[in-house]
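cache lookup: miss for this entity combination. No prior model stored, computing from scratch. Input as submitted by user K.M.:
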Amino acid sequence: MTYLAHNHKVVPTGPSKLLYLNWPIVLLLAAIASLGFLMLYSVAGGSMTPWAEPQMKRFALGLAVMLFVAMIPTWFLRNVAGLAYAISVVLLIMVEFFGSTGMGAQRWIDLGFMRLQPSELTKITLVAFLAAYYDWLDVKKVSRPFWVIIPVLIIALPTYLTLRQPDLGTALLLVFGGGGLMFLAGVSWLYFGAVIGAGVAIVAGVFRSRGTEWQLLKDYQYRRIDTFLDPASDPLGAGYHITQSKIALGSGGWTGRGYMQGTQSRLNFLPEKHTDFIFTTLAEEFGFVGAISLLALYVAVLLFCIVSAVSNKDRFASLLTLGVALTFFLFFAVNMSMVMGLAPVVGVPLPLVSYGGSAMLVLMLAFGLVQSAHIHRPR
Amino acid sequence: MRRTPQETEEGAAIVGRRGLILGCGMAAFATVLGSRMRYLQVNQADQFRLLAEENRINIRLLPPARGQIFDRNGLLIAGNEQNYRVTILRDEVDDPEATLRNLSHLIPLTDEDIAEILDEMYKRSRLVPITVADRLSWEDVSQVAVNAPALPGITPEFGLSRFYPRADDFAHIVGYVGPVSDYDLSRIEDPDPVLQIPKFQLGKTGIENKLEDELRGKAGTKRIEVNAAGRVMRELGREEATKGNTVQLTTDTRLQNFVQARLSGESAAAVVIDVTNGDIMALGSAPAFDPNKFVRGISVADYGSLTDNIYRPLANKAVQGTYPPGSTFKMVTALAALEAGLISPGETVYCPGHLTVSGRRFHCWKRGGHGKMDLRNSLKQSCDVYYYDVAQRVGVDRISAIARKLGLGERHDVPMSAVASGLMPTRAWKLENRGEEWLIGDSLNASIGQGFVLTSPLQLAVMTARIATGRSVSPRLVRAVDDRPEADRAGVPLEIATSSLRAIRDAMFAVSNEQRGTAFSTRIADKDKRMAGKTGTSQVRNITAAERRAGVFRNEDLPWERRDHALFVGFAPVETPRYAISVVVEHGGGGSAAAAPIARDIMLAAQFGSIPPLSAYPEAQRNRIQSSLEELPIADPRDGPKVAQEA
């Protein structure tokens, strides 16, 4: 399916590739990013600095990166996926040794011109490498235990490294992203059923054992889990973020308080108002209408990705597109759930809206992969 | 490695299928997110909006201006003055010490002050303003205000502070205010939130304390928007505070000033009551103190000098002090006997100078005796033996009953601190409190106002007013609150025969106006202003038989604290009584010498409404009186401000 060109039969070459881009996705991403600029301008109290302007520059850079990646043939991407994965794992190990500490966690390497967050990059390289792995793997072997253990290890390695930083949000995203890709590749339902069953059993065991003689965790660990799962039980400590964020959201009402009129975020009741909690500002100022519109934009991006993936006969391209879509979904779903009090607070940004360089560039790079898969699909 | 197209297609088909399944899952979760948005933002919007308001809006209290206190003529007794001060907020200053040093060029600040302020500042939150200097002049504050840009974190502020223009004169009546202490808060149930305002002034003693609820007013509120750190962003609205109610007292500032001046130098108290309505015209207690010092925070040295003074300046002796009334009590004993029908005014008792009752000898103050005494002469010359004789017949319970009718032993309802009830003993009282039977000797002592009997100057003034009018006059100190007049306290006729009262009043006239009357030397020459009275000298110790034999009981030879109390009660004018007075001079010696002259001056001042003219005094005394009156530290009340300066 092409949106701007008529010739459906030929894989495009040269500059004409631009015409074969998945334009609706480009437009949707621009729309989402623009909403982000508006919000960053607002939370800065009506100022382009310190957030809105750098964010625009990054988005421009991100668009360039996306177009550049889009031009690269998919076969090349497949061939370098393993290398990319290896590089990102090496970078993660480097963070362990040379990383700077920010917000109490080691997350980035200072490259001089920008801070590189290898864990962000890993989200995409993992998906790409797994897609390449399954593209290489014989379909019949997909569900064989040996061939299941290999991708599990591929996922486990960067997950372990990000957990050490510690970055629980990214680790979760890696596990769900990688697991999702295994599911997409056709790994038997049984494995997923078994993992889910085992998880439920462990969680149940941990909780049921509480207060008994064979209690599995220490008391303070249980208390930590309690506040993690139910932040409302500690409204001024762990629950402060979530309580304040729910208040901000709720006070938005149907149509919101109006642009730049959000009192909660403006008065600093909200922590991280320009990063992980930026959705609250949007919801407070534009209300339900604004919040649901953003959700609709995100869902539309997913929709175009899925359509593109399903109609693509190249297994790698299809997996890659769906993997990127899944990662994108995990970003906003986890962020929104957390902000709306449906999930514990883990540091996951709202894609393309939250202020942050690495996340923005990596996401645009990921959509570059999606574009490349779309342009170079077999006809 | 290449695969067959069939293989590739099969793989892509699986991915497509699974992709659709995953898409459905994602769509389902997106639906969950959307409905959560709807729940939070539509269904629960009202509740969250309320929470948001609470978050953001902080209500600050605005302290009310305290109600003013005026005298009966509308002269200001207690008002509010503007108080300029300078505060510093650590949150807004980078280098507090440097800023304070700069500030010290503008306002007087010593190195110790700066060290103290810094110390205080680091003890408190960054957001609590610390007072740098208090009670600055307008010039100093404007200096600070002009230089504000160079003094980050420094704010000139102004508030109202209590001010007593009459200084010492009303120290005991009005009392003083001071900052709310933890002790104050602990005593008040459900304290008014306004008390939490730092440096809020609360009535500590006297009227300020007793009428606190009227005077305080109601706090206003200021709604301000604050951020999460509590910093004020802007003001959203305000409701001004309601000023406290104005209180008008019955006292006359000029007379009060005269009374305090006349008592100065002594440890003494005097009360002047308008007998027609119970108004307390003046209520003096000397020495006094400057209540303004307490408002500003009295220094340890000043406070020490007040508490160490044996004259007890902090005590309001007029209502808190209780003294044996001495001979001023004889009217009560006489009335009790007359009312019981046990004596008639003409009946005489022979006074040989002493009376022996159950083996104990009771002395008259006049060692040689008075000879034959009737009621009138016994009061006029203050013969003790007459009352010893009468008391044996009447008994203490009847004396006590009359005393109560006259307001003795009763805690009068006046809004001052620690009003004493005195003591009017009965047989039952002694049995209950001392575990002993009442002895006849106790009755004899009580009959001349000694022994167990204790009265306050206020009670003595009320007693005199009741004798003068025959009505149950009660003291009234507050004339009106917020222009609502208080009820008149002229009282109802006492259940005492008019003839008895007339006999007593006639005898009191003799005391002050006839030869050989104990207060004859302090008579009033002006016929329209003449006073009827009674002197009293009450012992604060027993004179031992040995002392009596040795003749060492001249008061002047004793240390001050063992000398007799001097008392005088009286009313004037004699024909149509208007004022009743009581004077007690602690350890002053004889009533006629120490208390009566004071009472005469005050009574004249009350009747003339000014410093008494010399013509009111007997001719022979005028020179002496003139110089003593001229020495009095009198201040013209009209010099003081009529209304407080208020912003």
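stored under new cache key. The two ends of chain A are 10 Å apart (CA to CA).
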